[in-house]
Amino acid sequence: FVYDQPVGMMSIQETSASIDLTWNKNRRINLISNADPEISYWVSPAELGLWVNPQSTADAAYAVGRSKAPFKDIRASIQGEPEVIFPVLYFDETIARETLAKFVKSIDITPLDAQIEYKDGQWLAHESAEGRKLDIDSTIQCLVEDAFNIMLTGTHHLEIKPQSPTVFDLSPVIDEIETVISQDLSLTAYDPILDESFKWSVPVEIKQSWVSVKPEDYAVSIAYDQNKVRDLLKTWEKDLGEGRTFEGFQLENIIKGWQEGQTPHLMLRHNPTSYTVSPGESLWSISLKLGIPMYHIMAANEELTTNNIKSGMVLNIPSKNILLPLPVVENKRIVIDMSEQRMTVYENGGIRNTYIVSTGVSNSPTMAGIFQVQTHELNAYASNWDLYMPHFMGIYEAWPGFMNGIHGLPLLSSGQRLWASTLGSPASYGCIILDLAAAEDLYTWAEPGVVVEIIR
User: Fold this and answer.
1) 282 vs 262: CA distance, rounded Å
2) Which domain holds residue 94?
3) Residues 220/172, Cβ–Cβ less than 8 Å
4) Boundary of a domain, candidates 229, 250, 270
5) pTM metric for this prediction
6) Would you say 291 and 451 are in contact if contact means Cβ atoms under 8 Å apart?
7) pLDDT tens digits along 378-414
8) Count of the separate structural domains present in the chain
9) Beta partners for residue 46, in sequence order
């Protein structure tokens, strides 16, 4: 017998053919798994790299009864003790691996991490799910160790190992997620030219999409993607309308501010513009009209002078922010209405004081525009007119080195006090004149950076 297959009275050729048919060609092996009763793959032994050598096995069977102890063989036959030999079995690991690899796609399941989802107004925690993976190495090891029994039973168990997810359960962090989302992520901005303030807040639905949970410790946070934050800022910037932009902001600083629980603040900047010269206009008249000193316009237009300006020329006009060189003091503002010869001083959104003033006469007018307190000089001297200007605050350079400003009633070197009786009417050479008490009060109150708005 070749195990349980009778081969007596057969020639070697018949025995070999019978062995090949029984053990190789007609035999099937069912690959199953305890991990999933639905798994079942039928393969031939050859597909698992198993092969019974029919010739070698037949030779071994033929040798029975032809040993060096023939009387012993005859006695065993008479007594009904059949000789049993085992098939000569070979194994090819490469073939086995190739076959098992074909089943990986249908067997392997990637583990599913627990996830969170915002749906219908609430956060949901979805459960995790284990995965599985065919362990080819272990399956082959078992195949090698039990090859003959596998051939006999026609069954082989696939070694399938469970695969654990990284994040098992996120339900405890739902409350923490709500806390993180409830944080105010806002951005404020101020336009010192128009005295406008803005505030934007990141919409809840965007914060929801930015929620991140670290798998190693389930820490909940807002994950700031720079591209997404930049896109959001571009959306907010559209609220400003044309001609204004966020001034030189650093995206990293905005994100850092939010991470530290702060509200980042930006300064708005007005874009440069252009101006087409009309017939009869001079550079001086254009300067007064636009509220930009001539030298700034000349600097923005190469080779432009007061003498070569012509009708139809298109001039580059710099940003109005060029007249605000210092950090802006946002809670204070000085507004001078030349039509009423009145100054209104604002602090924290309310009126602090109102003063009667005198601005420049028609042939030496005060320029309307948005300026800034830049300098303080207790008693400035104007050599052009030989007079002293008490509590002088420079607000803009009419020409480099020549500062116009706000001050008290001037005093000639002769000791004569000027224009006390003309307050409330244009009287100066371009500066804004206050009585002495008002000038001193304003001088003490208005630090460098306070915006001065002069309107016609």
Assistant:
1) 49
2) 12-110+134-161
3) no
4) 270
5) 0.67
6) no
7) 999 998 889 999 999 999 999 999 999 999 999 999 9
8) 4
9) none
